[in-house]
TrEMBL record, chain A:
Keyword Cell membrane: yes
Transmembrane segments: 32-51, 80-100, 109-125, 162-185, 205-230, 242-264, 270-291, 367-388, 408-430, 450-478, 498-523, 568-587, 599-620, 625-645, 651-673, 685-707, 748-766, 787-809, 821-842, 854-877, 897-920
Protein name, UniProt field: Monovalent cation/H+ antiporter subunit A
InterPro entries hit by this protein: CPA3_Na-H_Antiporter_A (IPR050616), MnhB (IPR007182), MrpA_C/MbhD (IPR025383), MrpA_C/MbhE (IPR046806), ND/Mrp_TM (IPR001750), Proton_antipo_N (IPR001516)
Taxonomic lineage: Bacteria, Pseudomonadati, Pseudomonadota, Alphaproteobacteria, Hyphomicrobiales
UniProtKB/TrEMBL annotation, chain B:
Leader sequence segment: none
Keyword Methyltransferase set for record: no
GO cellular component: plasma membrane
Organism: Microvirga makkahensis
Pfam families in UniProt: Oxidored_q2
Membrane-protein topology: Multi-pass membrane protein
Name of the protein described by the UniProt record: Na+/H+ antiporter subunit C
Length: 958, 120
């Protein structure tokens, strides 16, 4: 039997209830109970080993690099908790079958319940502490779903949200704490960690780690000041409250403290934090519970108080106190689950949970009332019931625990807590079940069906049995569990017995009973006293904090997300300058040793032109057309620089890109405003200038520093292998299509995406607001000749020439400057010239190539070429070549890389054509007058002047 | 010669940075173009400068310039062409859609959905 199934089984089975609900509610409950029973049976099968003191472990690797493994183990403690979770879970499943009404979606409820059950079992059996955190957060999430089960109730939603924020947030603290713990211990497996208590307690990180882990435990277990979420979670259906707040969810924090007790407890910090927080929680919870009128609210605050009690006991740090804590966990789970279910029965039968409208139910529903009274007696700590035993043992423990050097603080406060506990338990019992029968219940109450009271009865049996025969019934369990908690082989002598003689604890117990009765007598004046004192409302504070956090986040977003592009740019650039500047300041500043090239006259002239034009652009940029022309001059200068410094391919590419870009921007400018209006003040511009100069100086300095130093390049390989390996003498081209062909393949895909994005952006602009603006756009005066004859003739003559040049550049690209990129640009320019001279419509009619097809074809060709090499058992994009001899032409080379380059060629042509075609289409929309179809208009006008009015054809006033 | 190239890189980039900090789309596009010039030359210069040593394998050439930065810059030129074309069209569409070519203020905000208040 693999114990890994313990948490997995309920999680996987969570899918069945919604399916089973189609066959009825009972079957749905059965489908939920089966995995729970199966898990319980598995647990029972593992029991003999656990009770022999063995540890059963099972592990699978998950993310071993991060120390995360799917490892679980079963020892006394995890067995105890798993049994509680599954056992009470089974009772809850039965109870919920009868509790939920017809209109509640039962399948969903059981799914959430199983998810929660699986997560909870996961928490207690996890060996890996990271896995524990995963399950821990799963319990937060699934309890969120359970608490908010009644989605239409705002209280349910808010309570669920509050529980999630508090416990989920605590989970993050826990994660941090457990990561620290794993670091300190050198392992993420609990079975390892628990052996290393001394290392952990001696670590300098012990205190932060402890506080983080306690943050997780305190939030989960509703310890002061995080206790406020628990009462609000009472908006959940009662079966959920009974489950979450008796045996499971809120016990997770207590479990964690017990689990890590051997490695965390026993230090001063542990004692002061844990026992103090536990004591305060115990008192605060009990005090509030006393004055609540809602049955579930009383139980909720009582749960808070009892959790405080357990926490305090664990905080004491002695094995005996741990034993009492374990005993009380068991006792509390039984009587509290019974009481919650009883509260549900009252609600179900009488129609209200307000104890002010209840009373006398003992006569109307004798069975369930008796059960509830017994459970309440246990909560009050009446003798012969299990609550009495653990409470008395608790008092015994605190009786000899000095606090801050004073012996009486702890016993006194604990007695006060016990006394309040007596008072609220008695108030609950008397106001609900005793007293005279009333006539004004919302429903007429009577005993519920067996399914509702049987689970309560099953829980009340151990309440009495343990109360009478503690050593016999609970002894082995408590002992085995405590051994696992304290991590030792033996326990100090103790006795689970009803009678210990006249001990101080007995005196305190009697005091508590008498005092509790007295408080109940003085309830009215005490309530007035309470109302007169300030009572901080936790929910309001929580809401305020949440609201402040939201407002803070909004403020931060508004401050950072200004939606101003210049500001974003400025931030990025300033950040880069700071990083670069820091690097410069901390580096060495020795001058470079590489010999510089001599400056020659032409270079100086080009440099001066480049600098002057750049500065002119900065000054004159409001005039957009001029800016565009000056920019292309700069581009020209850059390509001349490339020629000068032995980069013919770059020069060719730069100059052809320049032409295409200029045409593109000209077309766009036709639709955009012609000038940039003067904008910001001089201060702003001066600041921008400072940033720009800093950036420019930085880049220039960096470039100079690099250029004046020698280096070793990896290009030796490329130069050496270009001819023998790639079959080409133009190393740049061979790198592009062969050595780094994959990069190029990615690049042409990027180009394709850009082209398609451009297409989509402009295609949809022919509708909606953009289309209206286009339609109302005033066309500026045009030249008389839309398509000047001279230009038409020249471009048409040039077309075959330009195409030939393109083909030439393409073919020679492998060996001489050229290649697919440049050839593509040249051919695109040749086609563009036709569009410019003869009109877009005219060109499009004659151009039978579809730009989309070209893009697809290009990528396909390049991809297939790459895949082709796979056929020969070589990696993707391995190229091959051979020399072919043809008559007349002579020997030439055919390389598979040429096919790849052809793909590049098609993509480039397609991209350019698609972009410009789209802009031209939009442009055509803007022209209010009929568009001249093409150069043949001129002829048309001459020939048919009398038929068609020239104005309509030529697009100008006669 | 290195000082000329370095200073040209500086001037081109500075002009580019100044222009992309403007508040209208067109200067930003031009600024991007300038920045591309500056950065492309910068990348190219990482292979150091050399005259008359094109990376074309011939039998009589003794040394070649570094071809790798050239290949990278060639790709960069074409990619920045694609990017510029895209932002030009983006700017155009934005202008057509809103009637403004400003880039220093947000688009008109839609009313936010009323948030659920946590009230008891």
């Amino acid at each position: 039997m693999n114990i890994i199934l313990l948490p997995i089984l309920p999680l996987l089975a969570a899918i069945f209830p919604p399916l089973a609900i189609r066959s009825g509610r009972t079957l749905c409950a059965v489908a939920t109970a089966i995995p729970t029973v199966a898990a319980l049976l598995m647990l029972a099968a593992a029991a003999p080993a656990v009770y022999r003191g063995e540890i059963t472990r099972a592990a699978y690797e998950w993310l071993p690099q991060f120390g995360l493994s799917f490892s679980v183990f079963l020892d006394g403690l995890s067995f105890f908790f798993a049994a509680l979770i599954l056992g009470i879970g089974l009772l809850i499943i039965i109870y919920a079958r009868f509790y939920l009404s017809q209109k509640d979606p039962m399948g969903r409820f059981y799914t959430y319940l199983l998810l929660f059950q699986g997560a909870m079992v996961g928490v207690v059996v996890s060996d890996n502490i990271l896995l524990l955190v995963v399950f821990w957060e799963l319990t937060s999430l699934s309890s969120f779903l359970l608490i908010g089960y009644w989605r239409d109730l705002p209280e349910g939603r808010q309570g669920a949200r509050m529980a999630l924020v508090v416990t989920g947030g605590g989970g993050l603290l826990l994660l941090a704490g457990l990561l620290l713990l794993g670091q300190i211990a050198g392992s993420y497996e609990l079975t390892e960690i628990l052996q290393r208590g001394d290392v952990i307690k001696g670590s300098p990180l012990y205190l932060p780690m402890l506080l983080l882990i306690l943050g997780g435990a305190f939030t989960k277990s509703a310890q002061f000041p995080f206790h406020f979420w628990l009462p609000h979670a009472m908006a959940a259906p009662t079966p959920v409250s009974a489950y979450l707040h008796s045996a499971t969810m809120v016990k997770a924090g207590v479990f964690l403290m017990a689990r890590l007790w051997p490695v965390l407890a026993g230090t001063e910090a542990w004692f002061l934090t844990v026992s103090t927080v536990g004591l305060i929680t115990m008192l605060v919870g009990a005090w509030i519970a006393l004055f609540k009128a809602d049955l579930k609210a009383i139980l909720a605050y009582s749960t808070v108080s009892h959790l405080g009690l357990m926490t305090m006991l664990l905080g004491l740090g002695t094995p005996m106190a741990a034993l009492v804590a374990v005993f009380h966990i068991l006792n509390h789970a039984t009587f509290k689950a019974a009481l919650f279910m009883s509260a549900g029965i009252v609600d179900h039968e009488a129609g209200t949970r307000d104890i002010r409208s209840l009373g006398g139910l003992l006569h109307l529903m004798p069975i369930s009332a008796t059960l509830a009274l017994i459970a309440a007696g246990s909560m009050a700590g009446l003798p012969l019931l299990n609550g009495f035993l653990s409470k008395e043992m608790m008092l015994e423990e605190v009786a000899h625990t000095p606090y801050a050097g004073t012996p009486w603080i702890m016993p006194t406060l604990a007695t006060v807590g016990a006394l309040l506990s007596v008072a609220y338990s008695a108030r609950l019992a008397i106001a609900t079940y005793l007293g005279p029968v009333r006539s004004d219940y919302p429903h007429h109450p009577h005993d519920p069906p067996l399914g509702l009271w049987l689970p309560v009865a099953i829980l009340v049996v151990p309440v009495i049995a343990i109360g009478l025969l503690p050593a016999l019934i609970a002894g082995p369990v408590v002992e085995r569990t405590t051994l696992a908690v304290v991590g030792s082989r033996t326990l100090p002598s103790y006795s689970l017995a009803l009678w210990h003689g006249f001990t101080p604890a007995l005196m305190m117990s009697v005091t508590a009973l008498i005092g509790g009765a007295a408080i109940l007598m003085a309830f009215k004046p005490l309530d007035r006293l309470r109302l007169a004192t300030p009572r901080p409302e936790a929910k309001r504070i929580f809401d305020q904090m949440l609201g402040n956090a939201t407002r803070g986040a909004k403020f931060l977003v508004a401050a950072l997300h200004t939606e101003s592009l210049p500001r974003y740019f400025a931030t990025i650039i300033v950040a880069i300058i700071i990083v670069g500047g820091t690097g410069f300041m901390t580096g060495s500043h020795a001058p470079g040793t590489r010999t510089s090239l001599p400056i020659n006259g032409p270079a100086l002239v080009i440099w001066a032109a480049l600098v002057a034009t750049s500065l002119a652009v900065v000054v004159l940029h409001p005039n957009r057309l001029l800016t565009l022309i000056l920019t292309s001059i700069v581009g020209l200068g850059v390509s001349i620089a490339f020629i000068q410094f032995s980069a013919p391919d770059l020069a060719l590419t730069q100059i052809s890109v320049e032409v295409v870009m200029t045409i593109l921007l000209l077309l766009a400018l036709n639709l955009l405003p012609r000038t940039t209006p003067p904008e910001t003040g001089w201060l702003h511009r001066a600041w921008d200038g400072v940033i720009a100069c800093a950036g420019g100086v930085g880049l220039a300095g960096l470039a100079y520093a690099v250029m004046t130093r020698d280096f070793r390049s990896i290009s030796e390989y490329h130069l050496a292998q270009s001819k023998p390996g790639g079959g080409g003498t133009n190393v740049v081209n061979v790198i592009l299509v062969d050595f780094r062909g994959f990069d190029t393949f990615g690049e042409i895909i990027v180009l394709c995406i850009a082209a398609l994005a451009i297409y989509a952006l402009l295609d949809s602009s022919l509708k909606g607001a953009a289309a209206q603006r286009l339609a109302s756009m005033h066309q500026n005066e045009e030249s008389a000749d839309a398509h000047p004859l001279m230009l038409v003739v020249v471009t048409r003559v040039l077309l075959p020439l330009a195409l030939t040049v393109g083909a030439f550049i393409f073919l020679r690209g492998h060996n001489q400057p050229g290649g697919g990129f440049i050839a593509g640009l040249v051919v695109a320019i040749a086609l563009l010239m036709q569009a410019m001279a003869s009109g877009y419509v005219w060109t499009a009619e004659r151009l039978r190539l579809n730009a989309h097809t070209m893009l697809g074809l290009g990528v396909l060709l390049a991809g297939l070429t790459g895949l082709g090499s796979l056929l020969f058992g070589r990696p993707f994009l391995t190229s091959t070549f051979r020399y072919v001899h043809l008559p007349f032409i002579g020997e030439f080379e055919v390389a598979s890389a040429m096919a790849f380059d052809a793909g590049v060629f098609f993509v480039v042509v397609g991209t350019v054509l698609l972009s410009l075609a789209q802009i031209a289409r939009v442009q055509a929309r803007a022209e209010r007058k009929p568009v001249p179809a093409g150069p043949s208009d001129i002829l048309l006008q001459r020939r048919t002047a009398d038929v068609a009015p020239p104005a309509a054809v030529l697009g100008k006033e006669p | 010669m290195e000082i000329l190239v370095a200073s040209a890189i500086g001037v081109l980039s500075a002009a580019g940075i100044y222009l992309i900090l403007r508040g209208r789309s067109f200067p930003v596009i031009i600024g991007m173009t300038f920045l591309s010039y500056g950065v492309n030359v910068f990348l190219f210069a990482m292979g150091r400068l050399s005259v008359d040593r094109p990376p074309i394998i011939t039998s009589d050439a003794a040394e070649y310039t570094d071809p790798l930065p050239q290949a990278l810059v060639l790709t960069a030129i074409v990619i920045s062409f694609g990017m510029t074309a895209l932002i030009v069209v983006l700017a155009l569409r934005g202008f057509l859609e809103t009637g403004s070519d400003r880039v220093d203020e947000g688009i008109p905000k839609l009313p936010e959905p009323a948030e659920e208040r946590l009230t008891s």
